[in-house]
Amino acid sequence: MSTSKLSAILSQLQSSSSPPPQKMTSLLSSAKRELLNLNALLPTPTTPSPILLLARQTLETGALLSIRLQQPDAFTRYYQQLLPFYELPDSSYQTSNNDLRGQRSKITGLYLLLLLTKGDYAGFHTVLEGLEAGQPAEGKGLEGDEFISYPVKLERWLMEGSYDRVWGATKREGVPSEEYGVFSEVLIGTIRDEIASCSEKAYPSLPIANAKNLLFLESEGSVVEFAKGRGWVVKDGRIYFPQQQDDMRTDKDILVASGQVIENTIGYARELETIV
Q1: Is the dihedral of CA 148, 150, 151, 155 positive or negative?
Q2: Is the pTM of this model over 0.90?
Q3: Of 18, 182, 59, 174, whose CA–CA distance to 110 is shortest?
Q4: CA–CA separation, 79 and 75 (whole Å)
Q5: Measured between alpha carbons, how far is 30 from 99 in angstroms, rounded to an integer?
Q6: Is the pLDDT reported for residue 253 higher than 80?
Q7: Which residues are within 8 A (CB) of 208 and not within 5 positions of it... i.e. 6 or more apart?
Q8: Which value, in Å, is the radius of gyration of the alpha carbons in the chain?
Q9: pLDDT digits (tens, 9 = 90+) for 159-213
């Protein structure tokens, strides 16, 4: 069974001078048709090693393209299609283990990051536990894997409320690869919503100028637009938060919420001063 056509398509997809996105999408569709003809969309015990490798590389290429095109649903489908290939021992592919593990780590890390942007912490930890269970007794472990450790750190910082660290990690050269940078704005949006929720509980109002820095927004006009989207009132240069349904909040409740906002934002307020 010839694999020459699939190999040629894959070479075009992986070329350093990548075709335009529409052309790449068309090539991927052709590649998947070839996989179907080769009965290789799912691995079987009788699938030859060269075809297994081509199938895996095709799906991995499609997954990374989906990220670049900002198509998270398509990326999720590719990730799910890759799982049976990732369950096979490396010896099934008869190629460099490091190359295989590198791509698997990259795509799995991207999937963890996608779960993080969706707020699916249960799914995040389910995948992470599976990775930990599959770790060899000897080796660098997940902490030594730049693609996996990146979303793990972000999740920990989000849980701690260390938004300055998340902000710095998504805006600097600490991003493991180009594809990971695609999630920067999504993660900042997650942080923005967290801060907005805390601010609503902590303060009756805030100056627009302060809210701009607090919410990682580029202009006061963006603050006004964001405020309207959350049902806040903008008047005389301030944002007024709607009355909370629970009017029986104690002074202690307000102080705790205020403390959370202050503690978590002083750091990235200073960070912003160095970035802007």
Answers
A1: positive
A2: no
A3: 182
A4: 6
A5: 25
A6: no
A7: 220, 223, 224, 234, 237, 238, 239
A8: 23
A9: 888 887 887 888 767 788 888 888 777 888 878 888 898 888 888 899 999 998 8
